[in-house]
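Onboarding guide, step 5: your first structure request.
Type a short instruction followed by the sequence, for example:

Predict the 3D structure of this protein.
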Amino acid sequence: MSVTADSIPVAYTPTGGWKDMPAPFLAACTEPIVDGAPDMRGTWKVVSIEVGGIEDPNHRAIGLTQRIEQAGNRVIITASGATASGIVHDMRCDGTEENGVHDVAEFDLTTPITVVASFEDGVHVLRPVGVPIEVTRRIDGDQLVWTYLGFTARLNRIEM
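The system replies with structure tokens like these:
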């Protein structure tokens, strides 16, 4: 039986964030990821951070994890936060505000965010609405490279 990404409800960050990582949301999904999407599936751990081109071995993001699920053009990122709680950001990577992330920001787990998501030249691109920044994820060899507010992180896959 085929289970599509559309048949699984949208996931959101629980009030106050999660303390124990929730079970995978797309585990039953059989839909393949779309052509042109980087295959970022798995659980990743931040192993190095560069700020301004200089490695920062004491950065607060070292050791954080991100579980990335993909099906069709849907991506769900369940991530540990720099605070004690984590977030769940569920999106369609179709370049629309309507199907992007509608959740809360990691920094306080209450500020609403809307983020447009797309796949561009093999890169997962996030553009928060009303904020002039881009957040990207791409595969480089065996690592995931995540660019975020002022830093570039390299993550190793710790689980498929």
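Each response can be followed by summary notes, for example: The CA atoms of residues 19 and 84 lie 7 Å apart.
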